[in-house]
Fold:
Amino acid sequence: MGSNDRYVVKHPKGWAVKGPKSERASAVAPTQREAEARAKQIVGNLGGGEVRIQGTNGRFRDSDTVAPGNDPNPPRDTKH
Structure:
């Protein structure tokens, strides 16, 4: 993962946005949807990259490329 990428992970106060190899959260939101939106905003401000969303079971359930990031499979990524 690149330095601009962010993870949306479960947090005691809701959902957190974390960078790779970071212990502290960049942001904390009460809902996963709000944390995902904040993560996309952060990545967009940094010049693009990947946002990976963790499910409640701890496994990553989705990822999204924020422009001008490099989406490895653009024709198949129709969810966002």
Q: What stands out?
A: The CA atoms of residues 1 and 11 lie 21 Å apart.
